[in-house]
Structures are given as structure tokens and as C-alpha cells.
Amino acid sequence: MTTAASPRELAHPARDEIRLAGVLHALSDPVRLRVVSELAAADAELSCSYFDLPVTKSTTTHHFRVLRESGVIRQVYRGTAKMNGVRRDDLDALYPGLLDGVLTAAAAEAARHGTG
User: Mutual orientation of helices 20-27 and 57-70 as an angle, nearest 10°?
Assistant: First the structure.
């Protein structure tokens, strides 16, 4: 795994270190899937504080760490904010159509169950 160069830089896996099982695990949790859906819809970096998640702050931190360590998102510090963005280029190169398929399925499920 790529290591952080300084305490303010976060470690991310290189593209060739991203594994399908890790990506699927990260996307299998409803809270993490919601984060990725919102990031993809925004098509921009969003701070952790942007998300109003139904979990504690420590659990939120855990979810973002799982997403980062699996290679689904990239996190960078901008001042005191930790900004998040989907690693769409990497995921699309490795697993063409996977991210779009999962996000489309999640949106359809949310519409069916009135949770979107």
C-alpha cells in the first residue's frame, strides 16, 4: 500500500493495488454506499462534514477509512477540512461499468423503497 509522505497526507492504494473484493466490501454497507452515491452525484470533492450520516462521528471516520483503504475514494486535506472524491478513473479502468452499475442499482432500490 502506498504510504503517506507526511502526517497530513493520507495513504491510498495505488491503482494496481485496488482489489475487487475490497471495493465490493466497501460498497456493500448502506452508509458507505450513500457516501459514494452523494460524491458521484456531486462530481466534486466534498468535505466529511458535508455528509449528514445516521452514525456517530467515530463510525463515520471508520466508513471513510474503509472507502479510502479499498481505493473507492481519495481523501486530501484542504486546510483543516478532509475532502473526499470518488476514484472514478481508477475504478472505471479496473472494473468498467461496475461503479455506474452499483450506483444505478442503489438509486433504483432507493426509489422502490422510498428511501432516496
Answer: 150
Alpha-carbon torsion angle 75, 80, 81, 87, nearest 10: -20
Contact 94, 36 (CB under 8 A): no
Rounded to the nearest 10°, the torsion over CA 29, 32, 34, 35 is 180
Using one digit for the tens of pLDDT, what is the confidence trace for 34-77?
999 999 999 899 999 999 999 999 999 999 999 999 999 999 99
DSSP class of residue 5 equals S
For residues 57 and 34, what is the distance between their CA atoms, to the nearest angstrom?
Answer: 16
